[in-house]
Amino acid sequence: KKVFIFLLHILFNTSGSRNSHTRCDTAGFTGLNRVLMSARIKNVVQQAKSDFCSVENCVCILHNLSYQLETEAPEQFKQISVLDTRPKENNNKSLFSPKSALSCFSKDFKFPAMEKEKPEGVNWLYNQKTLQLYRSLLGSSQKEATLEACCGALQNLTASKSSLSTLMSQSFIEKLNGLPVISPLLISGNSSLQKTAMSLVGNMSRVSSLRGDVFPMVSSVLSNVTSNMIKSDSTIATACRVMQTLMLAEPETSKKMISPNLVESLTALSSNM
């Protein structure tokens, strides 16, 4: 056990290296991700022991390895293809409709590598099984460092405007019903965890088909700002930026989200700046 913990510390250091080649070598090391995901995290989740320190260490390593994954391992994502791109139905469209109403598309992607039954190497970092384990940990762990690492890994995987990020967001929210485990983190007393969760939600809000689910969550947070949030400028800034983006992208939906509580809360925030 001590040897395993010692090894995790070494891997954590190499996975967090600023040198992209070092990260890639660590991520591609044969069997490493399988050990991290299957041999450790999966087993302890099944045993309801998701707060073990070794789980935290494993997830932190995976968080580091997923950083700029698409840029550092582009060959992994050449097989993503768009199956269908079709406009959402909008009976009220006109030439004078908001831009978002005219250019709102629903995209379906095909990426066989994500569904591999026996992932290997780098494939573990974006495989459906890994997303499921993140979802399980977010729903079961009480350890804030583990929760933040899970959110951080998902944030890395959804960080760009690419097809991969869209697919990761859609898979986590639509296939795995991930929003219920993220929602409580948006009001966490830990400002760092709260900010990471909000940044993740912000990434996911770029996908037009997910905005209807994300919008109420962000609106609720800003309508019920806590004293802890007021102390954290970065969390407030992130939440307001996400809200602004959503309101500009979905003007009709934003009208329904505006409430006396939201206006009062935003006014109070402005007076505290």
Quaternary structure of the protein: single chain
Find the count of extended strands (DSSP E, 2+ residues).
Answer: 2
Number of domains: 2
Please identify, by name, the CATH architecture of the largest domain: Alpha Horseshoe
CATH-defined topology of the largest domain? Leucine-rich Repeat Variant
- Mean pLDDT comes to 77
Low-confidence stretches: 84-106
Q: Write out the CATH superfamily name of the largest domain.
A: Leucine-rich Repeat Variant
Distance between the termini: 50 Å
Q: How large a portion of the residues is in β-strands, by DSSP E?
A: under 5%
If helices are DSSP runs of H or I spanning 4 or more residues, what is the number of helices?
A: 16
Range of helix content: 55-70%
From the alpha-carbon coordinates, what is the Rg to the nearest angstrom?
Answer: 20 Å
Main structural class: mainly alpha
Series of H and E elements: HHHHHEHEHHHHHHHHHH
> Main sheet?
2 strands, antiparallel
Q: TL;DR?
A:
Its main location: other. The protein has 273 residues and is mainly α.
How is this fold's topology laid out?
Layout lengths: L1 H14 L4 H9 L3 H15 L6 H13 L3 H4 L8 E7 L11 H4 L2 E6 L17 H13 L3 H14 L5 H13 L3 H4 L8 H14 L6 H13 L3 H5 L1 H17 L1 H7 L2 H12 L2
Antiparallel strand pairs: 1-2
Helix pairs in contact: 1-4, 3-4, 3-7, 4-8, 7-8, 8-11, 11-14, 12-14, 12-16, 14-15
Keywords: Cell adhesion, Cell junction, Repeat, Signal
Family: Belongs to the beta-catenin family.
Protein name: Plakophilin 1
Keywords:
two-stranded antiparallel sheet; signal; Plakophilin/d_Catenin; 273 residues; Leucine-rich Repeat Variant; ARM-type_fold; globular; mainly alpha; 5% strand; cell junction
